């Protein structure tokens, strides 16, 4: 089966929450899901502040820090899909 483009892959918050440490660190920002595991060591603010939000919706934390346009653009690199609600 052909793999869907990453933007079309869908994850529940339940699944995202299983990726909550430095060996697999997913975060949600504005309903999109990002695998930032490989970015942890590169984060200018250090890995700990990102890991605090691993496996959760980090929208507020990410936006509160007032990331630059560069930071927002960089995030796009790590997109793996979108968040879906479970009914
Ligand atoms: C998950 C929650 C996050 C928090 C709480 C957070 C927090 C911070 C903080 C406190 C700084 C300032 C560091 C300093 O100036 O000493 C910073 C800088 C930065 N962060 Fe994050 N960060 C988060 C996620 C991310 C992600 C996922 C990316 C990109 C993939 C990112 C990209 C950057 C960049 C590029 C900078 C340098 C300043 C800028 O260009 O805005 N951050 N972050």
UniProtKB/TrEMBL annotation:
Residues 8-84 form the Cytochrome b5 heme-binding domain. Keywords: Heme, Iron, Membrane, Metal-binding, Transmembrane. It is found in: Membrane. InterPro entries: Cyt_B5-like_heme/steroid-bd (IPR001199), Cyt_B5-like_heme/steroid_sf (IPR036400), Cyt_B5_heme-BS (IPR018506), Cytochrome_b5 (IPR050668). GO terms for molecular function: heme binding; metal ion binding. One of its GO terms (cellular component) is membrane. It holds the Pfam family Cyt-b5. It comes from the Eukaryota. Belongs to the cytochrome b5 family. This is Cytochrome b5 heme-binding domain-containing protein.
